Amino acid sequence: MRYVRKGLQMGIVSWLLFLVLWQLFAMNSNQDYFPTPVQTLHGAIELIADNSLFTYVFISFKRVLLGWLLGSLLGIPAGLLIGRFKWLRQLVEPYLNFFRFIPALAFITLFILWFGIGEQSKVILIMYATLFIVILNTAAGVVNVEDDKIRSARSLGASERQILIHVIIPAVVPAFFNGVRLAMGNSFMAIVGAEMIAANEGVGYLIWTSRLYSKTDWIFVGLLLLGLMGFIGDQLLRWLGKTSLKRYGIAKETRFGR
Amino acid sequence: MSYYPLISSGTIIEGSPEENVQSPIISIRQLGKSFQSGAGKNAVRYQVLKDVDLNINKGEFFILLGPSGCGKSTLLNLIAGFEKQTEGELLVDGQAIERPGKERAMVFQHPDASLFPWLNVRENIEFGLRMQGMKKGERKAISDRYIELAGLTGHERKFPRELSGGMKQRVQIARVLANEPDILLMDEPLGALDAFTRRVMQEELVRIWSETKKTIIFVTHDIQEAVLLGGRIGIMSIGPDSRVFEIMDNRLEYPRDLTSREFNLIQKKLQGIFQDDLYFHL
Q: Does A207 touch chain B (CB under 8 A)?
């Protein structure tokens, strides 16, 4: 009983159950369309053998990381400015509220026309997927900094510049971190779409082209890879937040999902 | 202009004689503050304070007493320089207040909103000194002194979230004291504490005041607290158009005995004011 509870806590029970259900379901289906876990593992071994698996993962990850980093680096200062100045907020809020309803995927064709079929269009797409979430979260964080904190700093003799650096930015770290984490999820969604439509490498490409060879086991491998990449990326980010940003109050508010 | 003969007789004397001799550290004349809400046709003006006259002397423990919404905090915010008056004059050391300054330090009611949660106790206390560019060694010497004065020894490396409400308020008090202000503005700083912690903190506050000789302006709606702490108690009328309509001298010796006859006499007289129908028609 104790092992079961421990397993539940660590998610092991969930994954064992997942594999069992998958196996049962696949055994009762046409396995050309729904491969079993073992068949999927064979698919994965094939893909590792011809060296494409790690290459694809590396390429997709690189695109996401680059676009996400650039989007975040652009989004933080933009969010800080928008949160800090009311007139700027009023100026750009209509744009933000309009563009955040246009999913990044919808821009793929346009971005290919504008930035070419190569890496550039994909990185810019991820940037777009990242930017708005980071801006909105950061700006909301700035607006929500308690008046008393700013007043405290002011009556302790801090200048406006010092208030920005020593009060507002540290106070916004949790909101910003939340935005960056959500953006990571969005980036994975966007990259798969982009790679399906216009790429000859990457996990999205793998999923899309496997269809041509009726290799459903490869499709399954691709799906599992996406989940795994997202999970590892998120855990890495959380670990980073817990260790280096602990004093800003990150650890406690990032429990379930967001 | 006293409606209450009781206050200007017996143990309680209205207007201390020293007031006229010493030049006040804060001098308030015909002060008014109104807010505007809404815009255009729907604009509504609300006159929170009107014709406030008040002198506060150097080193005194002054209480602003009144019910919620009477503009006590607004008056404090004006002195702090967070807001600007709409009418009248407000001088500190003979100078009009233009902006917040470190000589007028504010202790807020809610420490969670005003402390910096990403800084530990010592770092919070050293914040003002760091902003002024003081070197680490010098900062430590000063923060050590106020950590001890505020009874925070042993908690220097804790973060605000690891402290109880009372401890957090000690940090807030030490944080402003480390900055060597002339005036401490306290906006119901003990209002959110439980009764036991509150009693301890009241005693601590009297001790800190008598050790540092700072001028304190302390806002509260608690009559017992006012009598326990205040050298003079400014009673505010109910809003709108609030003003300080009566100042009561309280010359009981510190530390004060809550159960003494004199204490209860003063408390009863104050209670009388707030229970009187006249109070609502001032």
A: no
**What is the pLDDT confidence band of residue B222, given thresholds at 50, 70 and 90?**
very high
Whether pTM > 0.90 for this model: the answer is no
- Residue A78 CB neighbours (<10 A): 19
Residue A252 has pLDDT above 80, yes or no: no
Q: List the single residue in B with minimal CA-CA distance to A167.
A: B116
Chain A nearest-CA distance from B102, in A, is 5
The answer, yes or no, to whether residue B17 has pLDDT greater than 60, is no
SS3 of residue B90 by DSSP: strand
Of A187, A208, A212, A186, the residue nearest A197 (C-alpha): A208
Q: What is the ipTM of this complex?
A: 0.84
Cβ pair B179:A156 closer than 8 A = yes
Tell me the Cα Rg of chain B: 19
Tell me the backbone φ, ψ of residue B104, rounded to 5 degrees: -120, 100
Per-residue pLDDT averaged across A140-163, rounded? 94
Q: If you write DSSP's letter for every residue of B95-128 in order, what string do you get?
A: EE--S--TTEEEE-S-HHHHS-TTS-HHHHHTHH
Q: What is the mean pLDDT of residues A188-201?
A: 89
Walk me through the domains of chain B, giving residue ranges and CATH numbers: 1-21+56-85+94-103+181-282 (3.40.50.300), 115-180 (no CATH)
**Interfacial A residues in 173-202 facing B (CB < 8 Å):** 173
Contacts of range B145-151, beta carbons closer than 8 Å, 24 or more positions apart: B145/B178, B146/B174, B146/B177, B146/B178, B147/B121, B147/B122, B147/B174, B149/B174, B149/B177, B149/B208, B149/B211, B149/B212, B150/B174, B150/B177, B150/B204, B150/B208, B151/B204
Helix axes A119-143, A86-99, angle to 10 degrees: 130
| Superfamily of the domain at A56-198+222-253 | MetI-like (1.10.3720.10)
User: Please, are residues A36 and A26 in contact by the beta-carbon 8 Å criterion?
Assistant: yes
